[in-house]
Each structure stands twice: as structure tokens, then as C-alpha cells.
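REQUEST ID: PR-0412
SUBMITTED BY: lab tech R.K.
PRIORITY: routine
TASK: structure prediction, single protein chain
INPUT:
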Amino acid sequence: MGERAIAVRDVSKRFRMYHERPTSLKERLLRFRGSRAEEFWALRDVAFEVDEGQTLGLVGVNGSGKTTLLKIIGGILRPTAGEVETSGRIAALLELGAGFHPELTGRENVYLNASILGLSKRETDGHLDEIVGFAELEDFIDNQVKTYSSGMFVRLGFAVAVHVDPRILLVDEVLAVGDEAFQRKCIARVRQLQREGRTIVFVTHAMQLVHEICDRAVLLDRGRIQTEGEVEAVIRAFRSVMARRDAGAEDGTLSRDLEIIRVDLLDADGSPLSMLSPGDTLNVQVEVAARRPVDDPVVILGVYNARDEWVYGTATDLREISLGRLDDKRRITFSLGALPFPEGRYAVTITVMDRGRRTTLDHQGQRYQFEIMRYLGEGVRIPVDIRVERL
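STATUS: complete
OUTPUT:
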């Protein structure tokens, strides 16, 4: 284990939200002072450490507190409680165009940002050509940045951040704005920084990137750490949170009147599988058991790709399959033929709801994974057959 680069100790962050906005200075002085503010805790008791040279993935749904935490680590925000210790120069790419002055040229902004990070003019002179070349802005570096596109903003911001010799690099979702070629260049640069022993905290919704480049991960949900540690376990937990919200169980409440007791991924002959080839059939076999009678529940199947994007879904009610009054066990088999997905990893979510889809009875989010071995083509309708058996 290396030296500690970042220590986050019981950090909480509170914001005050005013629902009234003053329209004049007089109103601000006379009325707004007495306005009541609602407290919102963006972070609660967050604690973890990052060793020097590690790459940490910080994941969570929108509003989970990721960017707030990154700003606190970077010294942009102060925590309401707790503390953060860091070792070495920090370079942060947190928001599109953050730290850029729109009236200054790209060249002037490079010097401004570098000086904020502690570089002398001579040091910046030595990095300038490399920064401009990496950002691919040779023809625009002397234009005011207010004329830049979002992609140009991102390229220049990232180029400065990774060329000022940071010991710690903080990267938020803004890389998603760049085009695919530049994203590949950024990932290559991140890998170079990893080889050099730099510490990186990486915020993203792209689980494939977390899987590819992170040593550890932390999952935030509603401002608290839900789980941390091994990347695959955190990714599974994140997918479960996402799928629960998609299923309408955002508060985590499940009636469990009907429980999912087993899910198997099988081939056409009923044998377990994890890899699929072109033309293969995927059978998703779901077993449920009623704890108390349920009238005509709905079983929903969803398929997500490695970026946690929903790519396919179906359900018993959509296929006009009725389970009737269920007071025992059932096996529901979804047979998906000739999957038209490109190569990659996929995960299956199973949700059981009441007939009106108002109550989530049980839910298992993206626990069951399979892989398409190579590109299978696009635009093909998936043949689906659903069978229900009394157990």
C-alpha cells in the first residue's frame, strides 16, 4: 500500500435553499432577511482514503453528491463538517469552462489557469505548445474563449489540467462533451498519468470506463456512501440503484408480497450460459413465490449495456400474458431470440409489480450478466416467447 494522497474524514455539506428571491435591494434588506431557508444536506458523513497512485471511480445517480464532493476535495467548496487532507498539487476539471475568462484568449486563459495551479510563467512557457497541440486548438488559441464551442472548452480545460504536473487529478463528467476521438486521447493520457504514479479521482456514469481504468470505486446515493471497494461490486450496486429508480422503487420500499427467488440465464437447450454467439437464444428463467395472494402481477425484464443504458425491455402484460391470482410459485421464462446487440457486456434486471404498476413487489437490479462475443448487427426485431408454469 502506498502513501495516502487523499483522506476524506466524515465530510458533510449543507446548502440553504431559499424559495423566495428578492427583486430589489430594498426587498433584500427588509424582507429577505426574514425569509426561511430550507436546509439540504448534499453530503452526510462521507469518509474514505485514496492511496498515492490509485485511480478511484466516484459513481452515483444525478444528485447523489459526486460533484459537491469533488469540489470539496479540490478546495473549491468548504465542508460544513469534517475535513479533507490532500498531498501534492491538485488539477481539477470539474465544470465546462470553469476557471476560463470569456473575454480572454485561449492562450491567456492557459497562463491564468496555470498560475492559479502554482506554475510560473517560465514553467507555463515550457508546457504551452504541448497544451495547445493536445487540445487541437492551434488555429484558435488566440481567439477569445467566448467564441469557443463546448468541445473546444473541454479540450483546452483537459489539456491544461493534465499538463501542469499534478499529483492529484480530479475529473468530472465533462469529458462526455468531447467527441469520440478526443475521449480516446483523454483516456490514453489518463493511463499515462497512472503509469507515472499520479492519483486520480474520476466521476462518471460510464461503468465501462470505471471497469477499465479504476482500481477502486465509491458509490454515493443521496449524499451517503452506499458501498466502496472492489470495482465490480460497486458497479453492481450502482446498477441496482439505477434499476430500482427506473422501476419506481426510489425509496427502496418493496412490499415483497411476491418475491423473486431465482433467476437463471440459459441457452436454447436449458443449459446455463454467460456468453452468446450470433443467432443464439437467451432464455431468462424467473422463479417467483407468493408470500400472500397477489392478483395478476406483472413481471418486467430489462436489459442494460455496460454504460448502464437501457437497451431493451418487455413484460408479461405487454405480451398479454396473465399470471392470474398467484398464491403459490411460478416459473416465467422469457425467450429472446437472435439478440441484435453489439458485442459487449450486458446485465438483466427483473422487477415484479402489481397489475397497475403502482407498487413494486420485488426487484433485482442488473445482477445477471451475459456477454455478446462479437458484433451481431442492428435493427433486428427480437423474437420473444413467454411461458408460465405452475411449480
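NOTES: The radius of gyration is 25 Å.
REVIEWED BY: pending
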